[in-house]
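Quick board copy: two proteins, each given as sequence then tokens.
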Amino acid sequence: MAGVKLIVMYPRPLDIDAFEKLYLEDHVPMAVEKLSGKTKFVATKVVATPDGTPPPFYRIAEVHFPSLEALQACAQSEGGKETVAHAVEISSGGTPVFLIGEEQVFVFGSKSLWDRLRACVAPQENSMAPSAVSHK
């Protein structure tokens, strides 16, 4: 199975400044310290929607894990339970939405690793080819 992530979507808080202070000074450091087994933490602030309507969520946090089992072990740990409870506590705009997702990444405008490796090897192979220049 590919890596998975815990996605936490926070509704717009009643007091943005108070939420930001709690989120950045208390919650993020807590998540970094207490969520065991994580491989990456991404914190996104939602700034707009394409049609200009107010976004339904203010922040989206993604906590990446190597497997579903690692995520579940973290969620069942004391640190995981404490961090989830704190997320609910600081979310003054309503209860955050918790989801589990399996990530699939598509990269555009970049060669694949295989193509890059092939390009590194190809010049060496060509340098061993007989020269087209005649030596008389």
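And the next:
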Amino acid sequence: MATLHQLLSSDPRAAADCAALLVAGDEVLLVDAGVEMLGATGSLETLRHLVSDHRVHALRADVVARGLAWHAEQHAVALLSDRDWVDRVRAHQRVISWR
């Protein structure tokens, strides 16, 4: 059962908790303060290492608002519009939000 994990915090503990529950087919979406992980190289690299078999996205509006678009591009994190976000939620059987 595929799950969309919405990471709403840049707290490394939230990322670690999220990563511990990822299974094949899951996706991670950085939302709100979660996009700040893009600027914290150590946090993002840790997350990307733990989820190397998972797709990592970020909400475009939150990334742009924080001036982190360059970081998203550097780490090959796909940016999603609000509509894309809704589509990702609908495409998954479960959604878990991490704070």
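Board note added afterward: Residues 3-98 form a domain with the Hypothetical Protein Ychn; Chain: A, fold (CATH 3.40.1260.10).
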